[in-house]
Amino acid sequence: MSRSMDLTIRRFERNDIVLDALLEVDESQREQVVFSSSNPQAANAHTLKVTLADVGDGGVGIQTSVFLPRGLKARVRVMAPRLESQDGETANQRDPQGEATTEVLFEHGVQVRRVELTSRIPTFFIGMSFENAAPDMSQQVEAFMARASEVFRAVNMARLEAMERGDVA
Description:
Layout: E1 14-25, E2 42-44, E3 47-56, E4 59-64, E5 73-81, E6 102-119, E7 123-130, H1 137-165
Antiparallel strand pairs: 1-3, 1-5, 2-3, 3-4, 4-7, 5-6, 6-7
């Protein structure tokens, strides 16, 4: 008796990464997918806080405790602390209310292709492909990875400098 096995065949190389991201359900599917306000991962009824786990020319992988159905269309957005103010100063910038200002490092439409339960916590790994990917998607992903590396290196340097001064936050 032969058994067929589900094989994950990737057409594109993926780069491992761990970043916070937001996943916003496409307007065309908002009646079918609504997140509970009692879920701490829900930023609102249609936006979920997720962890970006990998990125490649063909799509992204995320981790979340929320099940997302195959075929779901959404928009993934990766935010990061804004490092430069208008006067060229570098550090974690704050708005007048003292909140850290952010910049969008990467944003693109995606569609859920694969859902895998990876632990009993529960944690789902969700593979998503880019929707309407531009011919220069490879360059966009490469630029995102370079900018993410630059931003987080600067953030970590600022944290180290603050620790050396005794300003532990």
